[in-house]
Amino acid sequence: NAGVTQTPKFQVLKTGQSMTLQCAQDMNHEYMSWYRQDPGMGLRLIHYSVGAGITDQGEVPNGYNVSRSTTEDFPLRLLSAAPSQTSVYFCASSYKGAVAKNIQYFGAGTRLSVL
Amino acid sequence: GEDVEQSLFLSVREGDSSVINCTYTDSSSTYLYWYKQEPGAGLQLLTYIFSNMDMKQDQRLTVLLNKKDKHLSLRIADTQTGDSAIYFCAEISSRNSGNTPLVFGKGTRLSVIA
After folding, report:
1. B93, CA 20 to 30 Å: which among A41, A95, B26, B81?
2. pLDDT (tens digit, 9 = 90+) per residue, A51-71?
3. CB contact under 8 A, A107 and B42
């Protein structure tokens, strides 16, 4: 199984550019999430989804949009990139089942630099 | 609100035991988790403990939970250089509908000295 696949692995943007970070999972997980990881800040939740067609904001949603048109895909869009969005971005997914619903499976991350 | 606190760094000698500590604020937490992040990779689940347990052991890993003090610890016996990584504590609260993803601590960077 591929698990959670994120593309691209690395990206450099100029301030003001837009782009989409892709995330796909092949485990039929209902829950998907986007986090950013910054030194000394740990993981901060950007947006999450509990199923196709349903999304909600996390701790740091400003500057990012998401959509969930299918169970498999959960793209993260940067509308107008800013240097403060330089970070490592992780996508994660999990089952909705009672015990395992919060055992999250993470992608390998996208390292984004905004100049 | 929910908050998870961890010390940022821990250094141990190879073969010694490592103890990584975590405190949380939500007394209604039902499950508590330990994740491991190796360099350049995403997080992977190490182990988890249900809130009605005091201890869980899995090979070299021992998780201790003190609900009264809201304190969680991860002990790694016979620490190896391959254990060098960042370890994250995380919790889920029973108060929400279960839709909110995990709340993570900032992570403890474990360095193992050969």
Report:
1. A41
2. 999 999 988 999 999 999 999
3. yes
